[in-house]
Design brief:
By secondary structure, the chain is α/β, with parallel strands linked by helices. The chain is 31% helix and 18% strand. β8 and β9 form a beta hairpin.
Length: 255
């Protein structure tokens, strides 16, 4: 069994820097031997849930600008799995969730950067799934529920995003995490560990500093998807927590 995880993927620089978070990802990946990986990435937004469906090696997408040339030389040659993609699509359809299959799109940096740090050499198929940030949190959770039980088949589900992701609020001179970001994450952790779903679903109104932490929800909602995919009888574990430039959160959670 491999528990679903949410990981903060932060900056693309994670691919080439050594930080507390990249060391965590490397160490955590060494503990796992997934049969396949299903990753929901904040950097692929679609109105209808869309699943990558190919048996080929994915292209590596460089969906960023202004970073060192070294980043643009990295390839992450993971392969897809059409049969697994269709099985996952069937699970969503059975729950009344509309899906599309996509055979062309490569892996964006929300996928390949954390995967590179967890599994430097791809060893299993990867299925990338899009997100619709405009669906309410309860619906994001329901999307995750459709995949509940895949962990029993040694399929690793990853939600890739960030709990606090406000690029306009970054504090480049910060030596310590910004208190407002820490308070938001603390609220999340407390309510996830006590399984206060109704409160979590209303985070925008109830969480401290929610508007600052989540100015737009595309990086945040993979948390709800991953949460929904986990076994509610298991305890929620914080598996990593660190910050960069004041408020960029690398909070990572196991469900």
């Amino acid at each position: 069994m491999i528990s679903p995880i949410f990981v903060g993927h932060g900056s693309p620089m994670m691919a080439i820097q050594d930080t507390a978070c990249t060391q965590f990802l490397l160490d955590y990946g060494k503990k796992l031997s997934p049969k396949a990986i299903v990753i929901f990435t904040a950097h692929w937004e679609t109105e209808v849930l869309t699943i990558s469906s190919t048996n080929d090696v994915y292209d590596t997408i460089y969906d960023f600008r202004g970073f060192p040339d070294e980043l643009f030389q990295i390839k992450y040659p993971a392969k897809g799995d059409v049969e697994l993609a269709r099985m996952i699509a069937d699970r969503f359809t059975a729950k009344g969730i509309s899906v599309n299959l996509d055979s062309q799109r490569g892996l964006d940096h929300g996928s390949w950067v954390p995967l590179l740090r967890m599994f430097p050499t791809p060893t299993c198929p990867v299925i990338q799934v899009s997100v619709n940030p405009y669906l309410p949190p309860a619906e994001q959770y329901r999307i995750g529920e459709a995949l509940r039980g895949l962990d029993q088949e040694d399929i690793l589900i990853i939600g890739s995003g960030a709990t606090v992701h406000n690029l306009r609020a970054l504090n480049w001179d910060a030596k310590e995490p910004d208190a407002w970001a820490v308070d938001f994450d603390e609220w999340l952790i407390q309510n996830m560990q006590s399984q206060n779903l109704e409160v979590l679903f209303d985070y925008a109104a109830l969480a401290p500093n929610a508007r600052m932490a989540v100015p737009r929800p595309e990086h945040f909602i993979p948390l709800f998807i991953t949460m929904g995919s986990g076994d509610p009888e298991r305890s929620v574990q914080v598996i990593h927590r660190s910050y960069e430039v004041g408020s960029l959160s690398y909070l990572s959670v196991s469900f």
